[in-house]
Structures
1.
Amino acid sequence: MLSIGKFRKYLIYAIGEILLVVIGILIALSINNSKEAIERKKLERNLYSDLIEELQIDLGEIQGNRAYNQKYLSRYKLGSEIILNDSEKKQLDTLAIIAIELTKFSDFKNEGSAYQKLMVSGKIDLITNDILNELQSIGILYNYINRIEQNQMQFMYTIVPKITAYVRINPMQVIQADGLYDYQFQNDIEMLIKIGIEKEGLYEQAENNLTTLINSLKKNIN
C-alpha cells in the first residue's frame, strides 16, 4: 500500500511537471506569435504608407494630365466648329493656332504600377485581397491609358505633315487656308476629339479609383 501511495504521488508530480512544461511552451509560443503579429502589423503599416505616397504621386499626375487633356480637348472642339461654321474664314488665325496646338496632348507615363512592384517585392502577402484587387485594377487601367496615348502619338505622325504644309509656325503665317478648312483636316480633328473624350473618361475613372484606394489604405493604417 505504501508503494502504491508513493507511486501515485510520483505520477501526480510527473503529470504536474509535464503540464508546467506544456503551459510554459504554450506561453512562449503565444508571446512569440504576439511579437510576430506586432512585427507583421508594423511591416503592413509601413508598406501601406509607402503605397499611399506612391499612389498620391500617381493621383497628382493623373489630375494634371486630365486638366491638360480637358484644355486642349476644348480647343480641338473649337477648331472643328470653326471649320464647319466659318465659311468666310474670319477666324482663320484662330484656326491656325489651334492647328499648331493639335501637337499638344496629355501623356501620362507609368513605367510600373504599384501592383507590378508588389509582385516582385516579396511583400504581396502583407496586402489584403481587397486592396490587392484594387491595385491590380488600377494597373490595368494605367495600361489602357498608356495604349490610348500611344495611339494618339502615332496618329499625330499623320497630322504633322499637314500642319507644317498649311501653317508656318515661326513666325506664324497661314500658307494654305483652304487646307485648314478642308473636310479631311476637320476629320483629323474629330478623331483627336474622340481620343480626348475617351481619355477624359479613363482619367476620371483612374482619379476616382486612386482616391478610393488611398482612403482605404489610410483606414488600414489607423
2.
Amino acid sequence: MKIRDIPPENRPRERLHRLGPDHLSDSELLAIILQQGTVGENAIDLSNRLIAQHSLDGLSTLSPKELQKIKGIGPAKASQITSIFALAKRCSLKAKEKTPVKTAQDVYEYAKEILGGKDREHILILYLDSKNRINKHETISMGTLNSSLIHPREVFKTAIKENTSAIIITHNHPSGDPSPSKDDREITKELRNAGELLEIQVIDHVIIGKDTYYSFKERNQLG
C-alpha cells in the first residue's frame, strides 16, 4: 500500500500536525524524515523494517556508507538518516552542557553520546568553565581497537588556549569492559602530573564501556 492510499487522517504527516510528535511511533517519525519508500514498500514499511533489523540506536551508529548497504537505502536516504541522528545528538549534548558536571555519571552520560558504538579507542577531553560546565569537548586521539597513543601537549594545548582551569579525560573501550589497562593507569598518572605543573586540574578520567563506566576519581586512583 502506498502512503497516498492510506486514509489522510492516518498518514504520518497529518497525524503529526493533528496530534503532535509524542503520539507517533518511531516508524512513523522516521517515515516522515525519509518521505518516500522503495518499490513495493512505502515509507512506513521501510521504516518498520529498518528499526526491526537495526533498532534506532543501531541506525544512529551507522555511517552513510554502512547505511547504503541496507536494501532500499541510497545516498539520499543515508544522508537523511545520518543528519537527523547527528542533530539529535547535538541537541542532547547542548542540553547537558548547561548543567554543571558533578559526578562521573554525568561525564558518562555526556561522553557516551560521542563515544558509544565506536570500534576504535577515542580519547575525548572535556574542558570545564569556572562553574564546572562543559565549555568545549575535543577528540585528541584515535587509536587501534585495543590501544590509543596520547601525549600531554595534545591534551593541554586547547586547555591553555581556552584558559581552562580544569579538564576531564574520557575514552572508550570498544570491548565494552571499562576496566583500566596498565597503559590507562600510566597515562592517567602522567596527565595528572602534567596538569599540576600547568596548574590545570585533572578532575577525573572516565572510561566508557557498554552501559557502564570506570571512574578513577570514584576509585580514589587519581593520586
